Amino acid sequence: MKTILTLATLALGASFAVAQSSFTLATFKDPTNDSSRPLFYVTESTVSGFYTDGGLNLCLPSTGQTYNNLRMEMKEVTRAGSLLGGGTVRFYTPSDSNVFSVSWDKATYADSIALGGTFRAGQNVKFSGSSLKDLPPLHKGSFSFAFANGEDNKFGTTYTAAFTSSASAVPEPMTLTALAIGSLVASRRRRQKKAS
């Protein structure tokens, strides 16, 4: 019985370890080639963003889907140096108000030498939206907007950007249970074959 419990524990541990591996959740390349159509607006005290000009194609490698010509919105987030307050970036269409969104409690902003910087999540990153409906619950999320084409103007500094995000999937409890039971059955059959 001790062997069976040990094997069950190992099977659950292995299943949990597999569930912990991170994968690319969603990504898009910069939909513009120059600074004339920026996505983000950065001042000394805020960061905000929006984009409605077309060409923003969000790819979800985990589902094999691509959502074309999305719009993007990030309401104003407070900035104190490199620290950002909580916020949400939402990707949407006229018929779907939340195709994909990422929200966070705190994030960081890093200036680059003239061309841009990165905007990377730090704490309590959550993903939601209609594009995620077929995925298991997600955790350990992270995201990054790589800025490009920085331009100082009356808005502060504007940037175009590319985006990537990642997360780990949490298997449903029934999946973990089925894996553990399957491991136990396989182990028992091997022992019975050895004994006969």
Identify the notable features of this structure and list them briefly.
about 200 residues, alpha+beta, eight-stranded antiparallel barrel, two-stranded antiparallel sheet, 2 helices, about 20% helix, disordered N terminus
What does this molecule look like?
The chain contains two helices and 14 strands; from the N terminus they run αββββββββββββββα. With 196 residues, it is α+β, with helices and mostly antiparallel strands. It has one domain. The strands form two sheets. It has an eight-stranded antiparallel beta barrel. The N terminus is likely disordered.
Please give a quick description of this structure.
The protein is α+β, with helices and mostly antiparallel strands. The protein has helices spanning 2-20, 173-195, and strands at 22-28, 40-42, 46-51, 58-60, 65-67, 71-80, 83-84, 87-93, 96-104, 106-111, 117-123, 126-128, 138-153, 156-169.
* Shape, principal axes of CA atoms: elongated
- Helical fraction: 10-25%
Number of domain modules: 1
Number of DSSP strand runs: 14
Give the helix/strand class: alpha+beta
What's the layout of helices and strands?
Layout (H helix, E strand, L loop, with lengths): L1 H19 L1 E7 L11 E3 L3 E6 L6 E3 L4 E3 L3 E10 L2 E2 L2 E7 L2 E9 L1 E6 L5 E7 L2 E3 L9 E16 L2 E14 L3 H23 L1
Antiparallel strand pairs: 1-14, 2-3, 2-14, 3-6, 4-5, 6-7, 6-8, 7-10, 8-9, 9-12, 10-11, 11-13, 13-14
Helix pairs in contact: 1-2
